[in-house]
Amino acid sequence: MELRKPELAQTEIYLYRRPLHPELFTIFLDKRIDTGRYETRMMLIGNGHLIAFHYGDFHLVELLTSRKDLLTEKGLLEEITVDRDQAYQVALDDRIYYLLHVQAERMSEAVFGSVHAEMTQFAQTRGIFMSFEQWASEGELPPFSFIDYERRPSELDIFTYHAFPGDRVMLRTQSVFSLEPIVPGQRPAGEDPFRKPL
């Protein structure tokens, strides 16, 4: 498979109610969680991510990628652009409840450099992090992807950050996968100083 630098303009989030074949993607880092009630696989796929949440026979997959050419329409719930702040919520047969917030924050060069450095340092002690030096243009900071999470008995909160230095954009998502109905505004406070509450 051709490995090419992701472009923000082509990046979108795709939600599926079926598993996707991981071999479609180049997986840089991979982490699995099994709580006994639900299972999750989190993958960094090159300035993008794939989160696969499974509860019994129910599946919900969140995919952030610029490679639409790899995807299928089968089981696709929603296609969400990342060029503006957005929120999306869905309940799958009253078994899996899902909430997504997306924010593409454009910054000045100085602010982006400062945030990039802080987040790179912060990510060394949490979640999964990958810096993509191979995609750094001359004189530019490298893109990176970072997935952080908080696991609870009936809920998984995922926080992702994708740096696009060429655009000076920090793309942030906050997702909640829950086995119980989600009430916005009543989320537990996380320790991550970069998070913004739902």
Q: Sheet bearing the most strands, described?
A: 6 strands, antiparallel
Mean pLDDT: 89
The chain-level structural class is mainly beta
Order of helices and strands: EEEEEEEEHEEEE
Radius of gyration in whole Å, from Cα?
A: 16 Å
Query: Outline, from the CA principal axes?
Result: globular
Helix percent reads under 10%
Number of helices: 1
How many individual β-strands? 12
Low-confidence stretches: none
Number of domains: 1
Strand order of the largest sheet: 2-3-4-5-1-6
Q: Report how far apart the termini are.
A: 37 Å
Please state the oligomeric state of the protein chains shown.
single chain
Write the layout of secondary structure elements.
Blueprint: E1 12-16, E2 29-34, E3 39-44, E4 49-55, E5 58-65, E6 76-81, E7 86-92, E8 96-106, H1 109-122, E9 128-131, E10 144-152, E11 155-164, E12 169-178
Antiparallel strand pairs: 1-5, 1-6, 2-3, 3-4, 4-5, 7-8, 8-12, 9-10, 10-11, 11-12
